[in-house]
Amino acid sequence: MARFELALPAMGEGIIEATITKWLVSEGQDVATDQPLVEVATDKVDSEIPSPVTGRFVRRVFHEGEIPKVGEIIALIETGESGASSSGKRIALEPAPDPHHAIQIHESRRKKPKQDEPSGLALTPLVRQLAKQRGITAGELNQIRATGPNGMITKDDINNYMVNDRSEPLDTPSAKGRDTVPRQGPDLQEPIAGAEDKVIEMDRLRKLIAGNMVRSKQTAPHVTSFLEADITGLVNWREVNKASFFDRVQVKLTFTPIFIEAVAQALKEFPRINVSLSGDSIIIRKNINIGFATALPGGNLIVPVIRNADHENLAGLARKVSDMAERARQGSLLPAEIKGGTFTITNIGQYNSLTGTPIINQPEAAILAVGTIVKKPWAVKTENAYGIAVRDIVMLSLTYDHRVIDGALGGSFLSQVVRNLENFIDRINISTY
User: Fold this and answer.
1) What's the whole-number mean pLDDT along residues 125-152?
2) Residue 235 to residue 349: CA distance in whole angstroms
3) Residue 406 designated active-site
4) C-alpha neighbours within 13 Å on the C-beta side of residue 172
5) Which H or E element spans position 30?
6) Fewer Cβ atoms within 10 Å of its own Cβ: the N or the C terminal residue of the chain?
């Protein structure tokens, strides 16, 4: 008999770890090739890992709620093959140690606290990194209510503590030298549900969204600029051409790919918007990868990313928007398809909102909200004077990180987006759109 080492597979660019959310088989159970073994989660996407072999499931190395890294052994399967451990058939990018040694390392990591951890408390690498980033002391870690297996602190526990429980005064020594915001303390009591109130638990995705939003507001000073655009020509052009566009491209021509095209071209003119901040360094991204917020059936949001959006024509953008939005609603996006964004667009106008102040999708530096398109009286320049006409107007709001983007830069970029929309017909190549 031989033992097959099942390692956490590569799951997309930039993904180095995943959370074990649910084991689908028990130890000692017979498994078949391609049978789903475990559910894992990376940020916003859940995936199943199938068995690459037929055999008997011997042992879980990682438990539910724990966070292995790509390439780490997560389970052992006994196959009918003869020989020693079948390390040559692992699903991994890097060589792994002997499975028994890997188990010992993992058990040691789980049970043996590091020097900077409170006595008797073991932390996963991700939780240790989050605690360090947020300035959480060893003493504070002992106060956090752990919900993970075997009393382990999870990422959600850290986020809940930061949002709901932390009440550290701003002048304490551990608070100095880092950005802080007022926390919920004794004067902000936990709400109590009434007898007729309905209480529901946040699902995992909503918890992730909540944690990301809080982190973004704690990290970046948000500033929002607003501009209106007269897109009457664009609206009329779409109305005339949407039928022929569908015949040619086989997808509906919505406004989303049009706005993505306008933003992508503006980012080429203003690369200092297409940035991320790392410590005291500004990373100017070479690629323009635009995410577009998509509503899910359960009421949550997800942000698929179109890579190198500036290299796509309108037809290509429309195909990708249609395909990714549909797969997002079906829950079949790949982990890599929601990673690596450099700028985000959110369409709040689909619910008739005129405008809004969106929260930056970290680690990006800016996000554009598109309001609803309304007909309103508008000053129109004639040959000799101005007149009033009913026009199609949309309000755009750009929220940006004031640490790296000042008002002049943010306003200039937003003005360029408006120009791109208002001059859409003059810019678009009708023969190749």
Assistant:
1) 73
2) 15
3) yes
4) 10
5) strand 30-31
6) N
Closest of 233, 228, 227, 230 to residue 424, by C-alpha: 233
Beta carbons of 40 and 58 less than 8 angstroms apart: no
The residue ranges of DSSP E strands in 68-147, in sequence order, are 73-79
Residue ranges and CATH numbers for the domains of the chain are 2-111 (2.40.50.100), 123-182+200-219 (no CATH), 223-427 (3.30.559.10)
Using alpha carbons, select from 90, 63, 64 the residue that is nearest to residue 8: 90
Instruction: Give mean pLDDT, residues 222-244.
Output: 95
- Is 402 among the residues known to form the active site? yes
Cβ proximity of 391 and 380 under 8 Å = yes
CB 14 within 8 A of CB 94: no
Could you tell me the strand order of the sheet in which 45-50 lies? 19-23, 36-42, 45-50
Mean pLDDT of 300-304: 90
Cβ within 8 Å of residue 99, ≥6 positions away: 3, 5, 61, 73, 76, 85
Q: Which residues pair with 381 in a beta bridge?
A: 386
**pLDDT (tens digit per residue) in 70-127:** 889 999 999 876 544 444 344 333 333 444 444 454 554 554 444 445 545 656 656 7
User: What are the DSSP calls for 256-276, one per residue?
Assistant: HHHHHHHHHHHHHH-TTTSEE
The SS3 call for residue 9 is: coil
Angle CA 165–167–170, to nearest 5: 150
Q: Give the pLDDT mean for 44-49.
A: 73
Work out the average pLDDT over 364-381.
95
Provide CB contacts within 8 A for 311, sequence distance 6+: none
Choice among 46, 98, 165, 402 that is catalytic: 402
Contact assessment for residue 333 and residue 43, using Cβ atoms and an 8 Å cutoff: no
pTM beyond cutoff 0.70? no
What is residue 383's predicted lDDT score, i.e. its pLDDT? 81
Catalytic position from the list 165, 222, 406, 426: 406
Q: Which residue from 249, 414, 393, 246 is spatially nearest to 343, judged by alpha carbons?
A: 414
E strands, 296-336, are 301-302, 305-306
How many residues are present in the chain? 433
Say if residue 193 is exposed, middle or buried (CB neighbours under 10 Å; 0-12, 13-18, 19+).
exposed
Q: Which two tokens stand for residue 185?
A: 């303390």
d(CA 322, CA 257): 9
- One-letter amino acid identity for 85? S
pLDDT bracket for residue 397 (50, 70, 90): very high
Both tokens assigned to 220: 């970046």
